[in-house]
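Record 1 of the preview.
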Amino acid sequence: MRPGDWEKWVDQQIREAQERGEFDNLPGTGKPLDLTPNPYAQGQELAFKVLKDAGFAPEWIELDKAIRNKLQSARAVLLRQWQWREARLGELSGRSDSWSEAERVRALAGWQDAVAAFELELQAINQEIVELNLRVPSTRFQRSKLDADHEVTRLEAEAS
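->
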């Protein structure tokens, strides 16, 4: 191609697309452009805007969302197990027969199993946090690792 041919070709393609109506009813038609600067873009404003406009986010943001969702799910499972344990122990309170004692032991063992499963889940989440911390563009976006004992204590305090 000779100099200027490329621009002419692009202009021709745009005109033909307009004639076919390919630019009609685009998302955001008639709305003002959002030119709000992204304070976290650090020189990559255009890339972040293109991703955002297309409904995507940078990989590290998607990873952070996944971590938050997994943590929320793990906490919910542990909370349901704690509530079951408390309800079961409440049903058995005041009873001292051997069946009731065996049920108490079973409820407490179930809680310990749930805590052990939660600890394993947090280990996996902590590995993802390490990966996240290596990918974020700035240390201010890093997450702290989670402590299972602290999480369980917090859950018991909030649920009581």
